[in-house]
Design brief:
By secondary structure, this protein is mainly alpha-helical. It is built from two helices and no strands. The model has no long low-confidence stretch (mean pLDDT 95).
């Protein structure tokens, strides 16, 4: 299955990883999808407070 998502390595301390794992399980998401959701939520909040982020193509 082709995707346009970027791949990168993320290092987390063990406690944060385990907590995200628990949250992901409760939300019926994979850990990766939970992290992506959290990032999307943070970006949305940031843009509400600071305006749209311009991306250079």
């Amino acid at each position: 299955m082709a995707t346009n998502k970027k791949v990168f390595t993320l290092r987390l301390n063990e406690n944060n990883f385990e907590k995200i794992k628990i949250i992901a399980e409760k939300n019926k998401r994979s850990i990766a999808m939970q992290i992506e959701y959290l990032i999307e939520q943070h970006i949305e909040k940031y843009e509400e407070e600071n305006g749209s982020i311009k991306i250079n193509d």
